[in-house]
Amino acid sequence: MNLKTTLVASFAVFSPFASAQFGPGMTPPNTEYMPALFMNQKVVADMHLSPAVAQQEQSILIQEGMKMLSTMGNRGQSVDRVKMAKAALAAYKSMSDKSLAPLTPAQRVRYRQLSLQFFGPLALIQPKVTKQLEITPAQHAKMVAIIAKNSRQVAASMPKPGSNANGYMSGYQNVMQAQARARASEEAQMKAVLTRGQRAKWAAMQGRILPGIDNPLAGFGGMMGGMH
Length: 228
Description:
The protein is mainly α.
């Protein structure tokens, strides 16, 4: 499996929508950072990362991404999807934590903003963000219902556990298209759920918007052409 395939597979499985597979009544984790953003050259420039730090971040992503793939099961193997999601998110948190180490305090702040931009509406039901925005239980219940409906559709488009490399690559576009539709629907509905003050605070938490941030893999096609 080459490097690009590995990253696509990792992203497809460990995207924020993977938390939707936890099941009814289970609290989504505080997935605060998206390490795959460091493969996007626009992000590297926006965060003013030196070539050495950018390389370090990409190495963390690649090394930890390979480890995460081991949680996905082998072809033909029966997989407990809830168990797999828990193991995947535990591995994802390890990657996320390691990605903070090379950054300055200012870069960590921007990394958090860009990650929130990437996560979009799903971040609004995470415990930490819910507390920061003072989202009420009634608001939270409405948002969970919105996310759950769309997440089921996204989950159905994800590659099956144990799929081969070609399966992950061919399935990636389906995942991205389903995510784009879900995000557009969620953003419109979430706006109606939040108060004006909450919307203003949420906008401030995300900082200056970087266009196209919701697809971290879009910015590295050229730089990855010869990498394996």
